[in-house]
Amino acid sequence: MSKKVFEALAWASSFLKENGRDEHAGELLLRHVLKISRSTLFASLRDEVDEKSWANFAEKVNKHAQGEPVQYIIGSEEFYGRTFLVNREVLIPRPETEELVYGALERIKRLFGAEQKVNLVDIGTGSGAIAITLKLENPDLHVTATDIAEPSLRVARKNAEVLAADVDFLQGDLLLPFIESGERFDVIISNPPYIPIGDQKDMSIVVTEHEPYRALFAGEDGLDLYRRFMQELPLVVKERALVGFEIGAGQSEAVSGMLQEKFPHALVEIVYDINGKDRIVFAEIGF
Q1: pTM (predicted TM-score)
Q2: Contact present, 12 and 26 (Cβ < 8 Å)
Q3: How far apart are CA 280 and CA 268, in angstroms?
């Protein structure tokens, strides 16, 4: 039995709500199946959905009802006004990470000016969203991006290719490749895993059973990776450098304290996100 667009949306909304999922996800899934924009969708509410499209749509709605993130089902997510390909090998880019990118761009402009060629690295790049966005927003940057997992790098390389971003990708564990090569950076940016293992039991299965564990959790208190950064950073930052981390809400005192202890003369700043949560820590070293 054929359905009209508005009937398909109403069914999806009701079904997803019953299953404890976001009832608005049906709109994204139907737009993806029909390959139409939001405005076209709403102009077509009384149009028929053909049987093949309906079957495809119902299958995707069921997948989301069972916990699979919409972004993995449709294969993409928006970040900083661009579309990034995502799959289960990478963390889905979050809106709050856009604030890390924005804050980094602002500080790079202020600290280094237009003349200096700035060498930047994004550690744990995942989908490549941070590194690629920084390069596209400031083409003068020389951007390198690393990840410990080759499957994640495959996604990042594909995104760089699709978005025409000239970024160097490298497989490696945190800063070890650069400690070995002796390369140093003006800017080091990272959104590392920072969720305490104990938090897993209270989290949605949409996250815990689908997004990569390695990109989410970092020890008992979520600070394991930052501790490693503190050991490795002095070996790869230039005398004047900017370090920027995304952090979990409530971790700013610990992370800013580590940075201040490691770089006593640095200007360390905590940045709060649009929801008033501590979300980013920047350290301006040697300025």
Answers
A1: 0.89
A2: yes
A3: 11
